[in-house]
Amino acid sequence: MPEFAVAAMLFAAGVLAGVLNAVAGGGSFVTFPALLATGIAPLAANATNALAVWPGHALAVFADRRALRDRSRGTGASMLAALAGAAAGALLLDQVGNERFRVLIPWLILFATLLFAFGPRLQQRLAARAPRPDSRGSAILRRAAEFTLAVYGGFFGAGLGVMLMAGLQMLGHDDIRLCNSLKNLLATVIGTMSVAVLLLTGWVSLWHAAWPFAGAVIGGLAGARLARMLPARWLRAAVVLAGVALCAHYFRQP
């Protein structure tokens, strides 16, 4: 495929991913397969995707900066747990190797698809069983949960937003807007650390990342407006169908 065609495809994937992330989430279901389609190694596609989808969360954090400033208690500890977990996940990814990661791809996409499909229902059930957020035990549990989620985010990342929302509600955050703000903050921290580690390991292709990165910025800005017009459930359904199709495709591959 000519370089111009590759760049155009990745840019378009980034725009669509930015829109999806702004409205319903699931942008990695577009950018990760697009990067794989260019022929780069699976580990490189995954590492490059971490950089490509980073703008969406970062822009959301910037938009929510006032809400985060008003609720700063415990945020520093959460960020430290997320940094440590993301570094561990990225280092684990580096050790897995391309062949083993290739085998994991359909299973990871299947897990992310199921999580995306049933995430809202899971969030409601976990929120109903939430402990008091200000207890000592809850603080320790929260740090452990944030570390574990960050390991997944550093390793693969698709569906991370749903996992973070469910985890935060399970741990006692009943304000949905605050949960969303904290989710975006932790996702940005996780993405930043995992990208930094993967850049050092040499897996990130900056040329391949530049096009979806730019597209995601534009798509994210456009998606903020579309979110007021398009029902999120329509886009969620489309993402789930795409996830099922991707699972079928990658499970069929030798």
Q: How would you describe this structure to a colleague?
A:
It is built from 12 helices and no strands. It is an all-alpha fold and 254 residues long. It has one domain. Helix 1 runs parallel beside helix 11 and helix 7 runs antiparallel to helix 12. It is globular. It starts with a helix and ends with a helix.
Topology (elements, then pairings):
Blueprint: H1 3-23, H2 28-37, H3 42-52, H4 54-63, H5 65-70, H6 75-96, H7 98-128, H8 136-155, H9 160-170, H10 176-201, H11 206-226, H12 232-252
Helix pairs in contact: 1-2, 1-11, 2-3, 3-10, 3-11, 4-10, 4-11, 6-8, 6-10, 7-9, 7-12, 8-9, 8-10, 9-10
Low-confidence stretches: none
Structural class: mainly alpha
Give the N-to-C terminal Cα separation. Answer: 22 Å
**Overall helicity:** over 70%
The helix-strand sequence is: HHHHHHHHHHHH
- What is the overall pLDDT average? 84
Q: Tell me the fraction of residues in β-strands, as a range.
A: under 5%
User: Overall 3D geometry?
Assistant: globular
- Report the sheet with the most strands, covering strand number, pairing sense and barrel closure: none
Multimeric organization: single chain
How many β-strand stretches? 0
Overall domain count:
1
Question: What value does the Rg take, in angstroms?
Answer: 17 Å
Number of separate helices: 12
Jot down its keywords.
254 residues
What is this structure, in a nutshell?
The protein is mainly α and 254 residues long. 83% of the residues lie in helices and 0% in strands. The chain is globular and about 50 Å long.
